[in-house]
Design brief:
Blueprint: E1 4-6, E2 12-16, H1 22-35, E3 42-45, E4 48-51, E5 55-60, E6 66-68, E7 71-73, H2 80-93, E8 99-105, E9 112-115, E10 128-134, E11 137-143, E12 146-155, E13 160-164, H3 167-170, E14 171-175, E15 185-191
This protein binds 2-oxoglutaric acid (AKG) and manganese (II) ion.
2-oxoglutaric acid binds near residues 187 and 189.
Amino acid sequence: MLPLSLQLPNADIAFYPAFLEQQECDRLLTALTQTIDWRQDWITIYGRSLPQPRLTAWYGDAGKSYTYSGITMIPTAWTPMLLELKAGVDAVSGVVFNSVLLNLYRDGNDSMGWHSDDEAELGHNPVIGSLSLGGTRRFMLRYRSQKGLKHQLELTSGSLLLMQGTTQQYWQHHIPKTKRPVAPRINLTFRVIC
Ligand SMILES: O=C(O)CCC(=O)C(=O)O
Ligand SMILES: [Mn+2]
């Protein structure tokens, strides 16, 4: 499977538009929506406590906890379905992932703010394998020290985005809200917690 390689400075990003077949995506979206232990976390912004604009879940090897935005997530044990997806993403990336953050964007009002996946427990130059299922959402990238330098791509159902090398050091990414009607979307970001 040959990826599209994004030509961006100080980044190593590969995009596989058709990593999974559509029929498989529909099956996975339904099953994951129903079986994943989705939670609503709260975040504090300017002293106000607000619900995170999406549902999340953290699965992985025992002991691989993850802390971001002041939230510590203790891993739920892998399910057969998540292990099957992990095997596919491991094979393409050449990485053995040990955890996955799942995000459920219920509609266009759900989103993720600008950030880099650069928490200490991800180690130096982390590899992130990001699989998308369901409604297409826009993925925006901007250069950290020159915010006018931007790139965007549409994360379609069944696509896999691999970010590695110095990508997280130099770039931020986000999923903006949209007023367009959009189907629910699940994103799985496979990670290695050191
Ligand atoms: O939903 C996406 O495609 C992005 C998710 C993401 O950036 C993250 O989980 O860190
Ligand atoms: Mn991220």
